[in-house]
Structure formats: structure tokens, C-alpha cells
């Protein structure tokens, strides 16, 4: 199994803040390649949000604010790679399938490199333009405490009530 980022939706904000939101559970990549030909200084609104804080889902090619580390089998990794290569050919002008597959493999490899964490770890991305280059930062989102739920009852032995 290969650890890869998988889109997750903890609230209803992604469909409101992105032009196209990824569906929960899609395998994801960083997606910075999507911004190569964009005017980054002039970005506003939903496009700005995708640039600043979005992971790219590889099924819908929509955006997700957060991803969770998941385990992908070989078939899922292959499907993800092919979907990316097809997108590079159809939408981004890759010269041929071999070139598209090479770049897709690199993107999937980079996505896997982000997942050197336990399964179900939440990850976030932040991006900025600096001196004509895109700079990305990735961080782990930690729960506020180890105690995730409040007790709703306690068990009391008979006679101690």
C-alpha cells in the first residue's frame, strides 16, 4: 500500500469557496501545476482561494482545503496516475502520453512524499507567489486535545449510586 492524500470535507465551506470543489474521498495532489500560466498577482476570490489553500482532487479536478493521509492499493495509484496523465494531455497541452505519464508519476510521487505520517493525519497547504515562483508549505493539523469527545455517561458499580 502507498500512502497518499485523500480529500476530506469537515464542513460545507469548500463548495462555497472554490469554483469547483473536490468530492470527499478523492485521491489528491498538491496541484501547483494548475497555476503555471495564471496571472498570480491578479488572482481574486475563488481562484485566489484555490491558489492559496487548495489540494487538487484527481477525479473531479476540483479543490479541497484539507486532505487526510490514506492508503492506496496499486490499482488506485495507477488509476490516479492515468487520470492525471489524461488531464495533462486534454487540458494542459502535454505533447504526448509518455510525457504526460512521466509528469503524472512525479506528481503522484510528490503527493506520496507528503504522507510520511500515520493514516488519517490531516494536512493543509499554503501557497504564495514570490519572485515569479510558487512556494508551497504543508502542515499537519493537530487536534486541539487528545480528548476528542465529552463523556455522555459514566459507569457506576451497583450499590455505589
Protein described:
- The chain has 161 residues and is of the alpha+beta class.
- The chain has one domain (2-141).
- The chain has four helices and seven strands.
- A four-stranded antiparallel sheet has the order 1-5-6-7. A three-stranded antiparallel sheet has the order 2-3-4.
- The mean pLDDT is 89.
Helices and strands in order, then pairings?
Blueprint (H helix, E strand, L loop, with lengths): L1 E7 L5 H4 L10 E2 L15 H9 L1 E3 L5 E2 L1 E7 L1 H18 L5 H17 L8 E9 L2 E9 L20
Antiparallel strand pairs: 1-5, 2-3, 3-4, 5-6, 6-7
Pfam family, one: DUF6505
InterPro entries: DUF6505
Short overview:
The protein is of the alpha+beta class and 161 residues long. It is built from four helices and seven strands. Pfam families: DUF6505 (PF20115).
